[in-house]
Write a structure and sequence with these properties.
The complex is a heterodimer of chains A (269) and B (330). Chain A is an all-alpha fold. Chain A has twelve helices and no strands. In chain A, helix 4 packs across helix 11. Chain A is globular. Chain A starts with 20 loop residues before the first helix and ends with a helix. Chain B is an alpha/beta fold and 330 residues long. In chain B, 41% of the residues lie in helices and 27% in strands. Chain B has a six-stranded mixed β-sheet with strand order 6-7-8-3-9-10, sandwiched between helices. A four-stranded antiparallel β-sheet of chain B has the order 2-1-4-5, with helices on one face. In chain B, strands 12-13-11-14 form a four-stranded antiparallel β-sheet. Chain B is elongated and about 80 Å long. The two termini of chain B are 24 Å apart. In chain B, 49% of the residues are buried. Classes of the chains: A mainly alpha (269), B alpha/beta (330).
Chain lengths: 269, 330
């Protein structure tokens, strides 16, 4: 052991100057990403689910219609990207559950980081591997006739990031709200996830369903995002579906952040 | 450094049930002090510390920490204090040194300083061999030292330690304290710790605050508490007449509560250490030579017993569930 002297300027803490909120978000996100960088292979596992859906569900879908398979992929691949976002971000609260159990969450609560930056930073952290996964899915599907408009793809991924922040924040809010009964997290997550998934028309077109399902799907923000993603990847950047997609994604983000930050603040009483 | 007035916390467990975790605590801690808050589980130690560290909002009363009101400006309080909670502060998937670096940045160090500080702390707390391992792979003692390192990452002027050595074996506890005391000397830190280890409060702290049922019931040095609340005892066994020995005991300064039990005589005295040699000689001269003479120093447990009529040791065995409830509610 060395003789101990901490030579780094002691008490280097700024006492009054407040760090910009975005810097806080950046710090939280990069901290959360560090284990991912250390073990990049973990991102690969996240790829399994979308690829399974593409490999096993895609052919069934193609077989159930007379459309050429390229058209089917054009319809299905953007939806799979939304699904990856949904699955990836909706379980992020379980990471927080671990951190709440161990004390790592409490540790961050006594640091100068603002409360909201901790939620946003954590949610954004989920987006980075998602974008990597989305790129792999797109590249894998190109030989099968899937066409991705470059500008549309970039805008589409940005929309998924906004949606993901909202879904991630809601997942964190859920984890905090049910912190005394942890099993509740998965019960609620599963109960909410599948109706959202099916009503969005990701897997099968909602138009073929009964009227009540069409009405219900109008209240599913994912439906609007899915339709927007299909338009964006096809290169239809200016259709109204894209605008509605943004409305749904931004609303989800705003609601998610408001609920998330309120839950976090209230948990301190 | 810390000043509280009427600090109170009431948890609403349900609509009909409330828990008065802390009932009006007044506490003043001066810069540089090392104060142990001692009490049984559920006494309100942890809730008090969580209010001082801005993790829980007080129901009533005021607390000024490092010159800043914890309710009015919690963000500034957080910048000034280090906190080592009961759990492990490092993320389980993180590498130890990464976590120290990240948290250095969070506290406002620039990247080179944060990196240097991370390595200094790793060296200081004997973690060099484990710094690049994942936190989940560290042993309990290593993880606890990493927690302390995290609490010190910004060299705070005030450090809170919530049961820092719970769950560690005696060797690891001693080791952890070596590190803490050395760092404290170098940084002129004020330290407030909670503990339910009597010996820890006894040997480490310069001042002991005893808390029970959410209130401060005693506040003094460990020696002062023992002297005023418990006192030394002598236990003598004689081959001669116990009555003669009891008579001699009565002349010892501060003697009281003399009890004779067969050949055994016991009494409280002001200073057992100096009383025993004199008693040995006196008993021998009086024709009642001693077979055995014990000078018994009081423990903090005796203090607690004198204060509350209960033994702290019994409490520990029976009521570990209260504190968990307190944490959840927090």
């Amino acid at each position: 052991m060395s003789t101990l002297t901490l030579e780094t300027p002691v008490r280097a803490v700024p006492t009054s100057s407040r760090r910009p909120w975005f810097s806080d978000v950046w710090l939280v996100m990069t901290r959360e990403l560090r284990p991912v960088v250390r073990e990049p292979f973990s991102v690969v596992f996240g790829l399994i689910q979308p690829l399974v859906f593409l490999a096993l569900f895609g052919p069934l879908l193609a077989g159930s219609t007379d459309l050429p398979s390229a058209d089917v992929w054009q319809w299905f691949v953007p939806a799979i990207l939304v699904m990856t976002t949904l699955f990836g971000t909706s379980i992020t609260g379980s990471n927080l559950q671990t951190d709440m159990q161990t004390g790592a969450h409490e540790r961050l609560l006594v640091t100068p980081l603002s409360r909201s930056s901790q939620l946003v930073g954590r949610s954004l952290k989920e987006i980075v591997p998602l974008v990597a996964q989305a790129l792999v899915v797109i590249v894998v599907m190109l030989p099968f006739g899937f066409r991705a408009d470059p500008v549309g793809a970039v805008v589409g991924l940005a929309m998924l990031a906004v949606l993901g922040v909202g879904l991630g924040s809601l997942s964190y809010a859920l984890a905090i709200a049910v912190r005394k009964q942890e099993w509740m997290f998965w019960a609620v997550q599963q109960t909410v996830l599948f109706p959202l998934l099916i009503l969005s028309g990701m897997l099968l077109p909602i138009e073929s369903g009964p009227q009540w399902m069409k009405v219900a799907s109008a209240f599913d923000p994912l439906r609007w995002v899915v339709e927007a993603e299909r338009a964006l990847f096809a290169g239809d950047l200016t259709v109204s579906a894209v605008a509605w997609g943004w409305v749904a994604a931004v609303l989800t983000a705003v609601v998610g952040l408001v609920v998330g930050v309120r839950t976090l603040l209230r948990s301190a009483d | 450094m810390i000043q509280t007035r009427g600090l109170t916390k009431v948890f609403e467990v349900s609509k009909t049930q409330t828990v008065h975790a802390v009932r009006g605590i007044d506490l003043d801690i001066a810069p540089g002090e090392l104060v142990a808050v001692l009490g049984p589980n559920g006494a309100g130690k942890t809730t008090t510390m969580r209010m001082l560290t801005t993790l829980v909002r007080p129901t009533a009363g005021t607390a000024v920490v490092a010159g800043v009101d914890v309710v009015r400006d919690p963000a500034t309080v957080r910048r000034h204090i280090g906190y080592v909670g009961q759990g492990n502060g490092a993320g389980h998937t993180q590498r130890g040194v990464d976590e120290l670096f990240s948290q250095g940045l969070i506290y406002g160090l620039d990247r080179p300083s944060a990196r240097r500080r991370a390595h200094e702390l790793v060296d200081a707390l004997d973690l060099s061999a484990h710094a690049t391992r994942k936190v989940s792979e560290l042993s309990g003692g290593q993880r606890r030292r990493l927690d302390v390192a995290l609490g010190l990452v910004h060299a705070p002027q005030l450090l809170f330690l919530d049961e820092p050595s719970t769950g560690l074996d005696p060797q690891n506890r001693a080791n952890l304290w070596d590190h803490i005391l050395r760092l404290r000397a170098e940084h002129e830190m004020t330290i407030m710790l909670t503990t339910h280890y009597l010996d820890e409060a006894d040997t480490m702290a310069e001042r002991v605050v005893v808390v029970d049922h959410g209130q401060v019931i005693a506040d003094d040095t460990a020696d002062g508490l023992k002297r005023t609340l418990a006192g030394d005892r002598v236990v003598l066994t004689t081959t001669g007449s116990a009555a003669v020995v009891a008579g001699l005991l009565a002349h010892v300064p501060g003697a009281r509560d003399v009890v004779v039990d067969g050949a055994r005589v016991e009494a409280r005295v002001a200073d057992a250490g100096t009383a025993v040699p004199e008693l040995v000689i006196a008993a021998s001269r009086a024709g009642a030579p001693l077979l055995e003479a014990l000078a018994v120093r009081p423990t903090l447990d005796d203090v607690f017993l004198a204060l509350t009529g209960r033994s702290l040791r019994d409490e520990q065995a029976s009521s570990s569930s209260d504190e968990i409830e307190g944490r959840d509610a927090a």
